[in-house]
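Take just one protein record:
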Amino acid sequence: MKHTINSFREAMAKLRRTTEKDLVEIEFWSAREIGPELGYDQWRNFMEIIEKAIENCGRIGVERRHHFAEISKMVEIGSGAQRVQKDFVLSRTGCYLVALNGDASKEEIAWAKAYFVIQTRTAETAAPEVSDAEERSQLREKLKEANLQLGGAAKAAGVENFAFFHAAGIRSLYTMNLSELKARKGIAPKEDYWDRVCSLELSANEFKAQLAKKTIEDKKKRGVIHGQKQAEKEHERVAATVRETIHKEAGIYLEDLPPVPSLKKLLSDQKKEEKRLLGRGATTDSSSEK
């Protein structure tokens, strides 16, 4: 099966279920059914991703009970016998959180995340109930982790100049170097570029890093890659593939995406607001005791 944004969109539509509560239609998905579409054929492996997504709900202020409902159902196992099978009912936001916590080296996960980001941009459906700052924060951390893993694979393949190695991937993904990219988007030279880019761009770079890590490791084992130049060329090849695929599926090039407000500032403002509200709550409580 070819995995693209469109194929995941079709899967979401095909597997979508609805129920009615207080005359309002509620949509949901079965985790058992959506798992294979995200590249997880083994339930026990997919359960780990669901548990991570549920754990992260509290960190980003999302009420888990609205998006993850554990259920049990009877299924036939042959000869008329039945057994209890565990499943989860997922909201659209629940599906998105699972995708955010999945293995980005899986093409299915990469396209699922791109689907949710693009649907928000085009207002295809209601946006997932995850704030832009928290979404970008999660993806930023995953990108850092992916680049560290890529660096490890590059080192094992004989790379010594990591600045050149990472720059090769940037040039191929954007057709320009980082300083040119900052100038194009109006980002100050001393600013952290990744602090000013949207979720789609972060997700694309994470996918590029994970995919390059995998192909470099595989080709090193086969003796195809050894040394700086060969590793750089492979990084460039993967980045070019990701660039053209995103353009084919979403009709955009990443260098054309506008900069977004500073993630550090958004998170800082969010913390200040939380402290202000907590302070107000403490004042109210102390006043009521008098």
